[in-house]
Amino acid sequence: MLNALHTRLLNDFQRNFPLSPRPYLEIAEQLGVSEEAVLSALSDLSEHDYISRVGPIIPPNQLGVSTLVAMAIPPEQLQRVADQISARPEVNHNYERDHRFNLWFVLIASDAAHLQRVLDSIDEETGYQTLSLPLVDEFFIDLGFNLDLPHV
Amino acid sequence: MFDTRDYELLAHVQLGLPLCPRPYEAVGTALAMSEQEVLERLNRLKQQGLIKRLGVIVKHHRLGYRANAMIVWNVPEQLIKALGQRISQFSFVTLCYQRPKQPEWPYNLYCMIHGKDRQTVLAQLEQLNADCGIKHLESTVLFSLRCFKQRGALYQPIDKPVLAHG
Q: Would the pLDDT of B155 be above 70?
């Protein structure tokens, strides 16, 4: 379903989204289409799950505290434990990975005490130990994702 | 560095800007703030680095980037900063972090590669390891299998702003 306008929006507007009263109009003028066309193309992309939103990326630990958590769960228990963890509002990403530590998720909490309470409560609820791996340093400067999309 | 109103604004816009002609005005209406104030605050937050980037947030998986590898290395402390900076320069690397070692987990440097398939990702990793001269370091690759929950970084709505704890 991706047309040329979708592709341009996906590739070229991951950063420097205009901070002006009519940002979609500004983008439309750059692309030589109408503001309406930009809005409707972004709606399409969102509806079809190609984008999660138009918005800010906020670096970790600027608002609240976060950590990456690993757990080693017996395969037959994994779906159940993963569901218990996903149900928590503090959990953002929750993935299975092909390793003895097979469950990986990101926790974000309002402060260090809140984070620790969530970790303790997961240990207790699931019966398995969490391995918390908080950020020490971030090297990557996020300039968006360089998509190799076909030109249409 | 930022106040309660900045916090409310970030908590609101992190869910996404509305798709309407005057999105900042709509955000302002929800927060009892003028459009101009919304724009000024967002501009300042961007300059201060509290907004790393503002724009379209794409879903890699949906766009055909199905192979997501987390690569971890056990790096001597004194080399980690230089190596982290080096690794983050590769165009196919999407994240690069230092995290503490644990008794059961000897790794302290992490990077993510999102690729269209495993073979491509492993070839890119091979190139990265060779270029950085780190083939000898203890390392492991963890490809993602099932995704149980995927949501952008959302911060908990709380009563008062919480400053960085590092």
A: no
Q: Is B21 on the interface with A (CB under 8 A)?
A: yes
If asked whether residues A30 and A72 sit together in one domain, one would say no
Instruction: Answer yes or no: are the C-beta atoms of B56 and B16 closer than 8 Å.
Output: no
Report yes or no: B43 at the A interface, CB cutoff 8 Å: yes
How do residues A113-143 score in pLDDT, each as one tens digit? 999 999 999 999 999 999 999 999 888 766 5
Q: Are B13 and A46 an interchain contact pair (Cβ–Cβ within 8 Å)?
A: no
Indicate whether A41 and A80 sit together in one domain. no
A92 in a structural domain: yes
- Tell me whether residues A10 and B145 touch, CB distance under 8 A: no
Cβ <8 Å between B98 and A144: no
pTM here is 0.80
Give, in order, the Cα–Cα distances in Å from B134 to each of A53, B33, B81, B93, B99.
37, 52, 14, 16, 18
Number of domains observed in the structure of chain A: 2
Same domain membership, residue A70 and residue A32? no
* Strand boundaries in chain A, DSSP class E: 51-57, 65-71, 91-97, 103-109, 131-133, 137-138
- A5 in reach of chain B (CB within 8 A): no
pLDDT at position A20 over 70: yes
Which residues of chain A neighbour B16 with C-beta distances below 8 Å? 52-55
Please tell me the distance from the alpha carbon of residue B20 to that of residue A123, in angstroms, as a whole number. Answer: 44
- Whether residues B156 and A83 touch (CB distance < 8 A) is answered with no
Boundaries of domain holding A112: 65-133
CA B44, B53, B153, B86: dihedral to nearest 10 degrees?
Answer: -120
In a domain, A23, yes or no: yes
Q: Does B105 touch chain A (CB under 8 A)?
A: yes
pLDDT at B83 over 50: yes
The pLDDT tens digits for A55-66 are 998 877 777 788
